């Protein structure tokens, strides 16, 4: 590792390398207590919420997307406006994805080559060639605290040949990303490598070995929660996480279903992100410890209680279920905003409870008890599709 580029980042944890870990990642914009859940702000905003509202939920870090910001307004525009922290009016940590997930999600409008990915961008159709070098340089201009290497993500139905090719290309790109990062002038950004490999454990092991030789400050696990299902995800995740360097943060990308979070924490994962809280909040679905509830349902019309008794979010302290239902059905902006506030706070409260349980040495019992309650109630699975 380039020590000069790690001096402003520290990661300390307690716990077994392959079990639940309690840690703290120190960044130039403040600490991230782990396990941590990052709200997604794809286009330099957590959709529908002000920075103060996001901060009030307890979030210490948010995520933005390099591809989308390169398309609009442009990384150079963000830089000239003072950088991502200034544009977002957010003084805590920021992580930027490299755009690698769009290699998967925008499959109909891109061509993958060894030198990068050629997109017909989703705004005006003009061509955008995203290379490893360009992805890192754009993230350096954006100014996030944690930046991601450019990778190729494949779906759960990818063949072994397709997954192997993605690992080869991701390793090739990772080396180019690391070189660009190490030659840059910034010393205030940590670069994470991304492990791919589809649903093939041997390819995941290969990816870990190859990326480990590049000595990244942190490592992410990509290409999960793309259709493989919970049990298969855990089967792949457990050995992959355990093989990663124990002294570096481990980030599971795009995963947010509560039972997935609990399983991943048990595997030693430290960081998560997902659009689940805000995407579902805009549709009137609220997360509670007794399972998700759909506030549009008639049974909440005269309900004078909060979305979740005991929740300390601004929505639950001031608004009833009936009031939020009315606002949602009336297409008033405040309805989706309030449910999103509650949902983001729900995930921060869950992570705090997880950290507390780990500190007491009671995570396994906590996870079993909490999940049994969550799965016993509620009104169906929330929308977990990626992207805002």
Helix-strand layout with pairing:
Blueprint: E1 10-14, E2 22-27, E3 30-34, E4 36-39, H1 51-56, E5 61-65, H2 66-71, H3 75-80, H4 84-88, E6 93-97, H5 100-105, E7 110-113, E8 116-120, E9 127-130, H6 132-142, E10 146-148, H7 160-183, E11 190-195, H8 201-212, E12 218-221, H9 230-243, E13 250-252, H10 258-266, E14 271-274, H11 276-281, E15 285-286, E16 293-294, H12 314-318, H13 321-329, H14 334-360, H15 363-376
Parallel strand pairs: 4-14, 5-6, 6-10, 10-11, 11-12, 12-13, 13-14
Antiparallel strand pairs: 1-2, 2-3, 7-8, 8-9, 15-16
User: Averaged pLDDT, please?
Assistant: 94
What profile does the largest beta sheet have?
8 strands, parallel
The CATH homologous superfamily of the largest domain is named Queuine tRNA-ribosyltransferase-like
- The CATH topology name of the largest domain reads TIM Barrel
List the total number of helices: 15
Please tell me the total number of domains. 2
The CATH class of the largest domain is identified as: Alpha Beta
- Unreliable residue stretches: none
Read across the widest sheet, the strand sequence of neighbours is 4-14-13-12-11-10-6-5
Shape: globular
Compute the CA-based radius of gyration: 20 Å
DSSP summary, beta strand count:
16
Quaternary structure annotation:
single chain
**Helical amount:** 40-55%
Strand content: 15-25%
Roughly how many Å apart are the termini?
34 Å
Question: Which second-level CATH architecture of the largest domain applies?
Answer: Alpha-Beta Barrel
The assigned structural class equals alpha/beta
